[in-house]
Specification:
The complex is a heterodimer of chains A (192) and B (387).
Chain A: H1 3-48, E1 52-59, E2 68-75, H2 80-93, E3 108-114, E4 119-124, H3 127-131, H4 136-153, E5 159-164
Parallel strand pairs in A: 4-5
Antiparallel strand pairs in A: 1-2, 3-4
Chain B: H1 2-19, E1 27-34, E2 37-44, E3 50-54, E4 58-63, E5 72-75, E6 82-90, E7 93-100, E8 104-112, E9 116-124, H2 126-139, H3 141-149, E10 163-168, H4 185-204, E11 207-210, H5 220-229, E12 234-241, E13 252-255, H6 263-272, H7 275-283, H8 286-291, H9 301-319, E14 326-328, H10 332-335, E15 341-348, H11 352-359, H12 361-384
Parallel strand pairs in B: 10-11, 10-12, 12-15, 13-14
Antiparallel strand pairs in B: 1-2, 2-9, 3-4, 4-7, 5-6, 6-7, 8-9, 13-15
Helix pairs in contact in B: 4-12, 9-12
Classes of the chains: A alpha+beta (192), B alpha/beta (387).
């Protein structure tokens, strides 16, 4: 074999090796690149996957003066107030076979949370004053239905204040002072 | 002839009624000397209403009934303070005149039930008391020292209960709770309050102030203000309850508290789940004390709680209700009262069975008597703390 042929064959082998090496390295690097891409796609999926929160909503029954819990699962929205609103919807809607201590026609106008004071403010429409049935019992049932449920389920809320059409009220029907915020009274709950 | 016979039999029955002492009253009188006071007890075989007149010479107790015994004089040789008691009958009504050996003051007087007893604790007049105390200081010097050593807490100031403010809830255009038969809370509270007033005045001889005597609208602030201005020693607000639950029943007595917790319900909840205990502690932060409250009632919470307890116990006994316990809530009408203050919810107007009861005058009479007995026991308890 002539030297030329040998050099040619060696050169071809070197070129083949280099090309194979390049191909190998490229495939390896592309595989490496694929990994974070895959991870990224996975993390994107995680963000999109909704988170849920388990809640205990306490309702009154005809037989007992203590509220009993009903379990719910709510989707965790990005804004905290939205979660409170969803929770409020559950309270206003009520539950079958349980008593809802809210007169018909009463709706929530707005809700806001003051973080510095750990205070939740619930503002109802005027129907609350117009239609509320008089009595110490009715007032206490209404007040602690909201206060206990919110404070029990959301630890950041330590007190709840009520207003009607944006204004503070003295009492609902002449009994309980409504000008100050309410702290929870878990004596109304039975956690079974 | 038959008409004549009818009149004859009627006359016979009437004459029997007159001659037979159906409405007769017997009163036993007794007196004992205790350390620091003399107790005088009039025990009747049935209850009686009375009026008290006190003068330097003695004490006069006028009854609304005539005793079965005729006029008499009872002498008390061994008594430190009482000389004799003269029983007189004038205009078919009996009266007792208590003659004293030395100047005196009525330290307290109260009524006990079953059997009915009108009790007076009498002490020598303040002038004499002072002399006694000044001599007693030297004599009992060691006893005082002993008290200090044991850190015995003596009440600092003594306030005699002289005036009671009764607050009939709602009124005027503020109807309060309304039953299915259109029975209104404002009417029931006024009726019970008037009955209670009569009982307190006639049996305890105390002055009663009413926040309203008719169907008038009175603001919550002015109710407490009236009691404060009149320097009442006790504030009793009368209400009828309502609930979203028709089955809710029974009387409840409330007082204002810093800790907004229903003790009985709390204990039950605690039994069921201990996590409540942890959560409850969260609510007891200092912030609570700051907000709860800039109120006159703060100073009297302990006394109010005791008063509520006495009233609730009597309501439970008399109305045969299960003990729902004394409750605590921030009542607007109680917050500015500068005296022991409670709010009594006598029954639920939202409960059809209790609404029926609330229509009956006899039931309201029983409720008033139960509240009165609770008040009387509280007065006795308060007075006994000082001796």
């Amino acid at each position: 074999m002539s030297k030329k042929i040998i050099y040619g064959l060696v050169g071809a082998a070197v070129v083949f090796f280099i090309i194979s090496l390049i191909i190998f390295l490229q495939s390896d690097s592309s595989a490496e690149k694929a990994k974070p891409a895959e991870a990224q796609s996975k993390s994107v999926e995680k963000v999109e996957e909704p988170e849920f929160i388990n809640l205990k909503v306490f309702f009154y029954t005809e037989r007992s003066r203590y509220m009993r819990p009903v379990l719910y699962e709510l989707e965790f929205p990005p804004i905290r107030e939205d979660l409170y609103l969803k929770f409020m919807d559950l309270l206003l809607k009520g539950e079958e076979n349980y008593i809802k201590p809210i007169p018909e026609g009463v709706t929530l106008r707005s809700l806001y949370y003051i973080e510095d004071e750990n205070l939740l403010v619930l503002d109802f429409n005027e129907e609350l004053i117009i239609k509320f049935p008089a009595g110490t019992g009715t007032e206490l049932e209404f007040i602690y239905f909201f206060v206990d449920n919110f404070c029990y389920n959301f630890k950041e809320i330590k007190k709840v204040m009520f207003s009607v059409a944006g204004n503070n009220i003295k009492t609902l029907t002449g009994h309980i002072d409504m000008e100050n915020p309410f702290y929870p009274n878990y004596g109304y709950l039975i956690d079974q | 002839m038959t008409k004549f016979m009818k009149y004859k039999s009627l006359l016979l029955v009437l004459s029997l009624l007159v001659s037979f002492p159906v409405f007769s009253l017997t009163v036993n009188i007794r007196s004992f000397d205790h350390e620091g006071f003399t107790r005088l007890v009039f025990e009747g075989d049935s209850g009686f209403e009375y009026k008290i007149e006190s003068s330097k010479k003695g004490l006069e107790i006028r009854l609304n009934k005539k005793l079965t015994i005729k006029s008499s004089i009872t002498t008390f040789h061994d008594s430190r303070l009482i000389d004799k008691i003269i029983h007189k009958v004038e205009r078919k009504k009996s009266s007792f005149t208590v003659k004293m050996k030395s100047p005196y003051t009525i330290d307290r007087h109260f009524v006990l039930e079953r059997p009915f007893r009108l009790v007076f604790d009498l002490v020598k007049s303040p002038g004499e008391e002072r002399i006694q105390q000044s001599t007693g200081m030297k004599k009992y010097g060691n006893v005082q020292q002993e008290d200090q050593d044991f850190n015995y807490e003596r009440p600092k100031k003594r306030t005699l209960i002289e005036r009671i403010c009764i607050d009939p809830g709602h009124g005027g255009s503020n109807f309060g709770a309304i039953g299915k038969s259109n029975l209104m809370e404002k009417d029931i509270t006024l009726k019970v309050s008037k009955k209670l007033k009569r009982l307190i005045e006639s049996r305890l001889g105390l002055r009663v102030i009413m926040t309203r005597t008719g169907d008038a609208e009175v603001s919550l602030d002015s109710r407490a203000a009236l009691a404060n201005n009149q320097k009442a020693n006790m504030f009793i607000s009368i209400h009828v309850n309502g609930s979203f639950r028709k089955a809710a029943n029974g009387p409840e007595t409330f007082f204002v508290s810093l800790k907004a917790t229903d003790q009985e319900a709390f204990r039950l909840a605690e039994k069921e789940n201990k996590s409540f205990e942890e959560i409850d502690k969260m609510a007891e932060d200092d912030e609570l004390k700051l907000i709860l409250w800039n109120m006159a009632q703060t100073e009297y919470i302990k006394d109010s709680s005791k008063l509520a307890e006495f009233i609730q116990n009597e309501l439970n006994i008399l109305l045969h209700t299960t003990n729902r316990g004394v409750k605590q809530a921030p009542f607007k009408v109680l917050m500015q009262a500068a005296m022991p203050a409670v709010l009594v919810e006598i029954a639920f107007l939202s409960n059809p069975a209790e609404e029926k009861k609330l229509k009956k005058d006899s039931f309201l009479e029983e409720v008033a008597l139960a509240i009165y007995t609770g008040i009387n026991k509280y007065i006795y308890y308060q007075n006994s703390r000082y001796y």
